[in-house]
Amino acid sequence: MKKVIIVAFAIIALSIGFRFGMTKYGEIVRNKQMMAAAVPTVELDEIKEEEIYKSLEIPGRIESADKVDLVARIDGYLQKKHFSEGDFVKKGQVLFTIEQTQYLNNLNEAKAQLQNAKALMYKANRDYARGAELVKKDYISKSTYDGLYADKLSAEAAVKSAQAQLSEAQRRYSYTTIKAPTDGKIGSLNIHEGNYVTIANGAIATITKTNPIYVKYSVDSKLFDEMRKDEYLPQKGNEPIKVEIILTSGETYPIKGVQDFWDNQVSNSTGTIDFRATFENNDNVLIPGDFVKVKVFSNKKNNVLLVPQEFVLQDSKGRYIYTVNEENLAIPKYFEDNGQYGSYWIIKDGLNAGDKYIKTSITSLMPNRKVKIAQEAEKEGQ
Question: Quick one: which of 21, 36, 188, 314 is 20 to 30 A from 3 by CA?
Protein backbone atom coordinates (compact mmCIF):
# COMPACT_ATOMS: atom_id res chain seq x y z
CA MET A 1 0.00 0.00 0.00
CA LYS A 2 2.84 2.37 0.91
CA LYS A 3 4.53 1.63 -2.42
CA VAL A 4 1.35 2.59 -4.29
CA ILE A 5 1.14 5.89 -2.42
CA ILE A 6 4.79 6.69 -3.09
CA VAL A 7 4.40 5.94 -6.79
CA ALA A 8 1.28 8.14 -6.94
CA PHE A 9 3.09 11.04 -5.32
CA ALA A 10 6.00 10.60 -7.71
CA ILE A 11 3.68 10.69 -10.71
CA ILE A 12 1.98 13.84 -9.41
CA ALA A 13 5.35 15.52 -8.78
CA LEU A 14 6.58 14.63 -12.25
CA SER A 15 3.38 15.99 -13.77
CA ILE A 16 3.70 19.27 -11.90
CA GLY A 17 7.37 19.57 -12.82
CA PHE A 18 6.62 18.86 -16.47
CA ARG A 19 3.90 21.52 -16.54
CA PHE A 20 6.15 24.07 -14.84
CA GLY A 21 8.95 23.33 -17.26
CA MET A 22 6.71 23.67 -20.29
CA THR A 23 5.29 26.95 -18.98
CA LYS A 24 8.77 28.37 -18.42
CA TYR A 25 9.89 27.24 -21.82
CA GLY A 26 6.86 28.95 -23.39
CA GLU A 27 7.69 32.20 -21.60
CA ILE A 28 11.28 32.07 -22.84
CA VAL A 29 10.11 31.47 -26.40
CA ARG A 30 7.58 34.31 -26.19
CA ASN A 31 10.16 36.68 -24.71
CA LYS A 32 12.56 35.86 -27.53
CA GLN A 33 9.81 36.47 -30.07
CA MET A 34 8.89 39.80 -28.43
CA MET A 35 12.51 40.89 -28.32
CA ALA A 36 12.93 39.98 -31.96
CA ALA A 37 9.80 41.94 -32.83
CA ALA A 38 11.02 44.94 -30.74
CA VAL A 39 14.28 45.24 -32.70
CA PRO A 40 13.54 47.95 -35.28
CA THR A 41 14.48 47.49 -38.90
CA VAL A 42 16.31 50.55 -40.16
CA GLU A 43 17.66 51.88 -43.44
CA LEU A 44 21.07 53.51 -43.82
CA ASP A 45 22.40 56.38 -45.87
CA GLU A 46 25.82 58.01 -45.96
CA ILE A 47 27.28 61.48 -45.51
CA LYS A 48 27.90 63.03 -48.92
CA GLU A 49 30.16 65.81 -50.09
CA GLU A 50 28.47 68.49 -52.19
CA GLU A 51 29.64 71.59 -54.03
CA ILE A 52 27.68 74.61 -52.80
CA TYR A 53 28.01 78.37 -52.53
CA LYS A 54 29.62 79.17 -49.20
CA SER A 55 27.69 81.37 -46.78
CA LEU A 56 28.16 83.39 -43.61
CA GLU A 57 25.62 84.13 -40.89
CA ILE A 58 25.78 87.56 -39.27
CA PRO A 59 23.32 89.33 -36.94
CA GLY A 60 21.58 92.26 -38.60
CA ARG A 61 18.78 94.75 -38.25
CA ILE A 62 16.06 96.00 -40.58
CA GLU A 63 16.11 99.71 -41.37
CA SER A 64 13.90 101.95 -43.45
CA ALA A 65 15.27 103.01 -46.82
CA ASP A 66 13.94 106.50 -46.14
CA LYS A 67 12.41 108.30 -43.19
CA VAL A 68 10.74 111.69 -43.62
CA ASP A 69 9.48 114.05 -40.93
CA LEU A 70 6.38 115.99 -41.97
CA VAL A 71 6.67 119.59 -40.75
CA ALA A 72 4.60 122.76 -41.13
CA ARG A 73 6.29 125.33 -43.40
CA ILE A 74 3.80 128.07 -42.44
CA ASP A 75 1.95 129.07 -39.28
CA GLY A 76 -1.73 128.28 -38.81
CA TYR A 77 -4.33 125.99 -37.29
CA LEU A 78 -4.10 122.32 -38.27
CA GLN A 79 -7.55 122.07 -39.80
CA LYS A 80 -7.77 118.48 -40.99
CA LYS A 81 -5.87 115.22 -41.47
CA HIS A 82 -6.74 113.00 -44.44
CA PHE A 83 -5.51 109.58 -43.24
CA SER A 84 -5.63 107.18 -40.32
CA GLU A 85 -2.56 106.72 -38.17
CA GLY A 86 -0.59 103.69 -39.34
CA ASP A 87 -1.85 103.89 -42.94
CA PHE A 88 0.35 103.16 -45.93
CA VAL A 89 0.41 106.35 -47.99
CA LYS A 90 1.45 107.14 -51.56
CA LYS A 91 3.79 109.85 -52.77
CA GLY A 92 1.80 113.05 -53.50
CA GLN A 93 -1.15 112.03 -51.30
CA VAL A 94 -2.63 114.96 -49.31
CA LEU A 95 -2.12 114.28 -45.60
CA PHE A 96 -2.89 117.56 -43.77
CA THR A 97 -4.68 120.82 -44.41
CA ILE A 98 -3.67 123.97 -42.52
CA GLU A 99 -6.31 126.72 -42.32
CA GLN A 100 -6.25 128.37 -45.75
CA THR A 101 -8.34 131.56 -45.41
CA GLN A 102 -5.49 133.96 -44.63
CA TYR A 103 -3.22 132.53 -47.34
CA LEU A 104 -6.01 132.42 -49.93
CA ASN A 105 -6.78 136.10 -49.24
CA ASN A 106 -3.10 136.95 -49.62
CA LEU A 107 -3.03 135.05 -52.90
CA ASN A 108 -6.08 136.87 -54.28
CA GLU A 109 -4.63 140.22 -53.18
CA ALA A 110 -1.36 139.42 -54.97
CA LYS A 111 -3.26 138.55 -58.13
CA ALA A 112 -5.12 141.89 -57.97
CA GLN A 113 -1.90 143.82 -57.39
CA LEU A 114 -0.38 142.18 -60.44
CA GLN A 115 -3.38 143.11 -62.55
CA ASN A 116 -3.15 146.72 -61.33
CA ALA A 117 0.58 146.83 -62.05
CA LYS A 118 0.01 145.51 -65.55
CA ALA A 119 -2.64 148.18 -66.17
CA LEU A 120 -0.29 150.93 -65.03
CA MET A 121 2.46 149.48 -67.19
CA TYR A 122 0.13 149.47 -70.19
CA LYS A 123 -0.68 153.17 -69.67
CA ALA A 124 2.99 154.03 -69.13
CA ASN A 125 3.99 152.24 -72.33
CA ARG A 126 1.30 154.06 -74.33
CA ASP A 127 2.26 157.44 -72.86
CA TYR A 128 5.90 156.80 -73.64
CA ALA A 129 5.10 155.78 -77.24
CA ARG A 130 3.10 159.01 -77.77
CA GLY A 131 5.81 161.08 -76.13
CA ALA A 132 8.42 159.61 -78.47
CA GLU A 133 6.47 160.95 -81.47
CA LEU A 134 5.79 164.34 -79.88
CA VAL A 135 9.36 165.00 -78.81
CA LYS A 136 10.53 164.56 -82.42
CA LYS A 137 8.28 167.48 -83.41
CA ASP A 138 9.26 169.51 -80.36
CA TYR A 139 5.69 169.43 -79.08
CA ILE A 140 6.97 168.38 -75.63
CA SER A 141 10.18 169.08 -73.87
CA LYS A 142 13.03 166.65 -73.55
CA SER A 143 12.59 166.53 -69.77
CA THR A 144 8.91 165.61 -70.15
CA TYR A 145 9.95 162.82 -72.50
CA ASP A 146 12.51 161.59 -69.96
CA GLY A 147 9.81 161.54 -67.31
CA LEU A 148 7.59 159.36 -69.54
CA TYR A 149 10.47 156.96 -70.08
CA ALA A 150 11.12 156.76 -66.32
CA ASP A 151 7.41 156.07 -65.72
CA LYS A 152 7.60 153.22 -68.25
CA LEU A 153 10.59 151.62 -66.51
CA SER A 154 8.97 152.06 -63.10
CA ALA A 155 5.75 150.41 -64.30
CA GLU A 156 7.67 147.45 -65.75
CA ALA A 157 9.56 147.05 -62.46
CA ALA A 158 6.25 147.21 -60.56
CA VAL A 159 4.91 144.35 -62.67
CA LYS A 160 7.95 142.21 -61.90
CA SER A 161 7.60 142.98 -58.21
CA ALA A 162 3.89 142.08 -58.30
CA GLN A 163 4.73 138.82 -60.10
CA ALA A 164 7.27 137.94 -57.40
CA GLN A 165 4.70 138.71 -54.69
CA LEU A 166 2.15 136.52 -56.46
CA SER A 167 4.67 133.68 -56.71
CA GLU A 168 5.42 133.97 -52.99
CA ALA A 169 1.69 134.03 -52.14
CA GLN A 170 1.16 130.92 -54.30
CA ARG A 171 4.07 129.17 -52.58
CA ARG A 172 2.79 129.93 -49.11
CA TYR A 173 -0.75 128.93 -50.08
CA SER A 174 0.57 125.60 -51.41
CA TYR A 175 2.05 124.95 -47.96
CA THR A 176 -1.47 124.86 -46.50
CA THR A 177 -1.65 121.29 -47.81
CA ILE A 178 1.05 118.88 -46.64
CA LYS A 179 1.59 115.99 -49.08
CA ALA A 180 3.47 112.73 -48.74
CA PRO A 181 6.96 113.17 -50.21
CA THR A 182 7.42 109.39 -50.55
CA ASP A 183 5.56 106.07 -50.33
CA GLY A 184 5.57 104.52 -46.88
CA LYS A 185 3.84 103.89 -43.59
CA ILE A 186 2.83 106.92 -41.56
CA GLY A 187 3.21 106.79 -37.81
CA SER A 188 1.29 108.37 -34.94
CA LEU A 189 0.53 112.09 -34.75
CA ASN A 190 2.65 114.38 -32.62
CA ILE A 191 0.27 117.33 -33.18
CA HIS A 192 -3.47 116.81 -33.57
CA GLU A 193 -6.22 118.64 -35.47
CA GLY A 194 -7.25 122.00 -34.03
CA ASN A 195 -3.79 122.87 -32.72
CA TYR A 196 -1.81 125.88 -33.93
CA VAL A 197 1.29 124.76 -35.77
CA THR A 198 4.47 126.64 -36.58
CA ILE A 199 7.77 125.85 -38.22
CA ALA A 200 9.30 125.55 -34.74
CA ASN A 201 6.93 122.73 -33.71
CA GLY A 202 8.99 120.06 -35.46
CA ALA A 203 7.50 116.88 -36.95
CA ILE A 204 3.72 116.58 -37.06
CA ALA A 205 4.15 112.91 -38.07
CA THR A 206 6.78 110.70 -39.71
CA ILE A 207 6.63 108.54 -42.85
CA THR A 208 8.80 105.45 -42.92
CA LYS A 209 9.53 104.01 -46.36
CA THR A 210 9.18 100.22 -46.24
CA ASN A 211 9.56 99.08 -49.85
CA PRO A 212 12.30 98.52 -50.77
CA ILE A 213 13.83 98.13 -47.32
CA TYR A 214 17.37 97.86 -45.98
CA VAL A 215 19.00 95.24 -43.78
CA LYS A 216 22.21 96.46 -42.17
CA TYR A 217 24.94 94.35 -40.57
CA SER A 218 28.57 94.76 -39.55
CA VAL A 219 31.72 92.61 -39.62
CA ASP A 220 35.09 93.03 -37.97
CA SER A 221 38.23 93.58 -40.04
CA LYS A 222 39.33 89.93 -39.71
CA LEU A 223 36.06 88.61 -41.10
CA PHE A 224 36.15 91.33 -43.76
CA ASP A 225 39.50 89.96 -45.01
CA GLU A 226 38.00 86.44 -45.18
CA MET A 227 35.02 87.79 -47.11
CA ARG A 228 37.35 89.45 -49.59
CA LYS A 229 39.26 86.18 -50.18
CA ASP A 230 36.12 84.03 -50.45
CA GLU A 231 34.32 86.40 -52.85
CA TYR A 232 31.69 87.76 -50.48
CA LEU A 233 32.34 91.20 -51.95
CA PRO A 234 30.97 91.96 -55.43
CA GLN A 235 33.53 92.15 -58.21
CA LYS A 236 33.07 94.18 -61.37
CA GLY A 237 31.41 92.03 -64.02
CA ASN A 238 30.44 89.26 -61.55
CA GLU A 239 27.05 88.33 -60.21
CA PRO A 240 25.78 90.51 -57.32
CA ILE A 241 26.18 89.10 -53.82
CA LYS A 242 22.93 87.41 -52.74
CA VAL A 243 21.70 87.81 -49.16
CA GLU A 244 19.05 85.86 -47.25
CA ILE A 245 17.51 86.71 -43.89
CA ILE A 246 16.03 84.53 -41.17
CA LEU A 247 13.27 86.22 -39.17
CA THR A 248 12.89 86.12 -35.38
CA SER A 249 10.21 83.45 -35.88
CA GLY A 250 12.85 81.16 -37.41
CA GLU A 251 11.31 81.39 -40.87
CA THR A 252 13.41 82.32 -43.87
CA TYR A 253 12.18 85.39 -45.74
CA PRO A 254 11.17 84.08 -49.21
CA ILE A 255 12.77 86.89 -51.27
CA LYS A 256 16.54 87.15 -51.50
CA GLY A 257 18.17 90.56 -51.28
CA VAL A 258 21.29 92.03 -52.83
CA GLN A 259 24.30 93.38 -50.95
CA ASP A 260 24.71 96.83 -52.45
CA PHE A 261 26.89 98.79 -50.02
CA TRP A 262 29.75 98.51 -47.58
CA ASP A 263 31.44 101.41 -45.86
CA ASN A 264 34.84 102.79 -46.81
CA GLN A 265 36.32 102.69 -43.32
CA VAL A 266 36.40 100.79 -40.04
CA SER A 267 34.31 102.46 -37.35
CA ASN A 268 36.43 104.03 -34.59
CA SER A 269 33.82 103.20 -31.95
CA THR A 270 32.94 99.59 -32.88
CA GLY A 271 35.94 98.39 -34.91
CA THR A 272 33.60 97.04 -37.60
CA ILE A 273 32.70 97.76 -41.21
CA ASP A 274 29.04 98.43 -42.01
CA PHE A 275 27.25 96.53 -44.80
CA ARG A 276 23.81 96.95 -46.33
CA ALA A 277 21.51 94.72 -48.37
CA THR A 278 18.30 95.80 -50.10
CA PHE A 279 15.14 93.66 -50.11
CA GLU A 280 11.76 93.92 -51.76
CA ASN A 281 9.02 94.22 -49.14
CA ASN A 282 5.80 94.23 -51.16
CA ASP A 283 3.73 92.62 -48.38
CA ASN A 284 5.37 94.73 -45.64
CA VAL A 285 6.48 91.65 -43.72
CA LEU A 286 9.79 93.29 -42.81
CA ILE A 287 9.44 95.94 -40.10
CA PRO A 288 12.10 98.61 -39.46
CA GLY A 289 13.93 98.06 -36.20
CA ASP A 290 13.43 94.28 -36.11
CA PHE A 291 16.48 92.03 -35.59
CA VAL A 292 17.23 89.26 -38.10
CA LYS A 293 19.91 86.73 -38.92
CA VAL A 294 21.66 87.66 -42.17
CA LYS A 295 23.01 84.94 -44.45
CA VAL A 296 25.47 86.21 -47.05
CA PHE A 297 26.27 83.93 -50.00
CA SER A 298 29.67 83.87 -51.66
CA ASN A 299 30.04 83.78 -55.44
CA LYS A 300 32.64 81.04 -54.92
CA LYS A 301 31.63 77.36 -54.69
CA ASN A 302 33.02 75.13 -51.92
CA ASN A 303 32.98 71.40 -51.16
CA VAL A 304 31.13 70.70 -47.90
CA LEU A 305 29.64 67.72 -46.05
CA LEU A 306 25.86 67.74 -45.74
CA VAL A 307 23.36 65.78 -43.65
CA PRO A 308 19.56 66.14 -43.98
CA GLN A 309 18.06 67.95 -41.00
CA GLU A 310 15.17 65.49 -40.79
CA PHE A 311 17.56 62.70 -39.69
CA VAL A 312 19.31 64.79 -37.03
CA LEU A 313 18.39 64.78 -33.34
CA GLN A 314 19.49 67.16 -30.60
CA ASP A 315 19.98 67.03 -26.84
CA SER A 316 21.89 69.02 -24.24
CA LYS A 317 25.21 67.86 -25.71
CA GLY A 318 24.38 69.07 -29.20
CA ARG A 319 23.25 67.67 -32.56
CA TYR A 320 23.77 64.03 -33.46
CA ILE A 321 22.86 61.24 -35.86
CA TYR A 322 22.51 57.50 -35.19
CA THR A 323 25.15 55.20 -36.66
CA VAL A 324 25.37 51.39 -36.47
CA ASN A 325 28.47 49.63 -35.10
CA GLU A 326 29.75 46.11 -35.86
CA GLU A 327 27.38 44.60 -33.29
CA ASN A 328 24.39 46.28 -34.94
CA LEU A 329 23.88 48.66 -32.02
CA ALA A 330 22.48 52.15 -32.58
CA ILE A 331 25.23 54.58 -31.54
CA PRO A 332 24.67 58.36 -31.37
CA LYS A 333 27.43 60.37 -33.07
CA TYR A 334 27.66 64.07 -32.31
CA PHE A 335 28.85 66.74 -34.73
CA GLU A 336 29.36 70.50 -35.01
CA ASP A 337 27.53 72.37 -37.74
CA ASN A 338 28.53 75.39 -39.76
CA GLY A 339 25.03 76.67 -40.45
CA GLN A 340 22.29 75.53 -42.79
CA TYR A 341 22.04 74.99 -46.50
CA GLY A 342 18.39 74.62 -47.43
CA SER A 343 17.10 71.59 -45.48
CA TYR A 344 20.62 70.34 -44.66
CA TRP A 345 23.12 70.95 -41.89
CA ILE A 346 26.61 71.86 -43.09
CA ILE A 347 29.03 69.67 -41.11
CA LYS A 348 31.97 71.45 -39.54
CA ASP A 349 33.44 68.63 -37.41
CA GLY A 350 32.63 65.17 -36.07
CA LEU A 351 31.55 63.40 -39.29
CA ASN A 352 33.34 62.35 -42.46
CA ALA A 353 32.32 61.68 -46.04
CA GLY A 354 30.99 58.14 -46.36
CA ASP A 355 29.92 57.79 -42.71
CA LYS A 356 26.69 55.80 -42.59
CA TYR A 357 23.72 56.97 -40.56
CA ILE A 358 20.21 55.71 -39.82
CA LYS A 359 17.52 57.48 -41.80
CA THR A 360 14.37 55.64 -40.63
CA SER A 361 12.61 55.15 -37.26
CA ILE A 362 15.03 57.58 -35.60
CA THR A 363 12.50 58.75 -32.98
CA SER A 364 12.04 55.16 -31.71
CA LEU A 365 15.75 54.41 -31.41
CA MET A 366 17.55 54.09 -28.08
CA PRO A 367 21.32 54.45 -27.62
CA ASN A 368 23.21 51.15 -27.59
CA ARG A 369 20.09 49.15 -28.50
CA LYS A 370 20.12 46.55 -31.21
CA VAL A 371 18.76 47.33 -34.65
CA LYS A 372 18.30 45.33 -37.80
CA ILE A 373 19.58 46.78 -41.06
CA ALA A 374 16.98 46.52 -43.83
CA GLN A 375 19.39 45.01 -46.38
CA GLU A 376 20.49 42.28 -43.92
CA ALA A 377 16.90 41.61 -42.84
CA GLU A 378 15.99 40.95 -46.48
CA LYS A 379 18.83 38.41 -46.80
CA GLU A 380 17.69 36.61 -43.63
CA GLY A 381 14.16 36.40 -44.97
CA GLN A 382 15.28 34.72 -48.20
Answer: 21
